[in-house]
Amino acid sequence: MRLNHLNLTVADVNEARKFLEKYFQLHTRASRGESFAVLSDEDGFVLTLMKSNAVNYPKTFHIGFVQENEEQVNLINQRLRDDGFEVGSPKRAHGWTFYVNAPGGFTIEVLCPAEKKDNSYL
Predict the structure, then answer these.
(1) Is the dihedral of CA 117, 42, 49, 15 positive or negative?
(2) Structurally, how many domains does the chain consist of?
(3) CB contact at 8 A, 11 and 104
(4) What count of other Cβ atoms lies within 10 Å of the Cβ of residue 115?
(5) How sure is the predictor about 117, in pLDDT bands with cuts at 50, 70 and 90?
(6) Which of 7, 38, 74, 85 allows an S-S link to 30, with CB 3.0 to 4.6 Å?
(7) Are residues 70 and 105 in the same domain?
(8) Phi/psi at 81 (nearest 5 deg)?
(9) What DSSP assignment string belongs to 13-40?
(10) Residue 27 to residue 22: CA distance in whole angstroms
């Protein structure tokens, strides 16, 4: 069994949707104005975004996008910086990683795991 669907409540559905499309290759499959969007990737993962006026995730909550190599992490980091997002440089932790606060009120981790064994790092 694998996780294939996640719903996030966000403050701005359209801005979050555009961000995820631009930097993480998700594609919008359906939307209802500013209140709801369905996105997916090439592997069949479905991410839904629902509008909420009170987005309040725990401090450590985040979603992650695992990359094939450190160069991909660096490339995404630089693209975000070039577009004006405040992101720290990637660091060596449980892999080569950095975090970014996404439009809509949630955090994303971009990561190349230290040891890749069937796409896991724990």
Answers:
(1) positive
(2) 2
(3) yes
(4) 9
(5) low
(6) 38
(7) yes
(8) -60, -45
(9) HHHHHHHHHHHH--EEEEEETTTEEEEE
(10) 9
| Domain residue limits at 122 | 61-122
pLDDT digits (tens, 9 = 90+) for 15-52: 999 999 999 999 999 999 999 999 999 999 999 999 99
Domain boundary among 10, 32, 51: 51
Q: Is residue 56 part of a domain?
A: no
Angle at 43 between CA 41 and CA 44, to 5 degrees: 70
Q: Which residues contact 12 (CB under 8 A, 6 or more apart)?
A: 34, 51, 103, 104
pLDDT tens digits for 55-95? 999 999 999 999 999 999 999 999 999 999 999 999 999 99
Band of pLDDT at residue 96, cut at 50, 70 and 90: very high
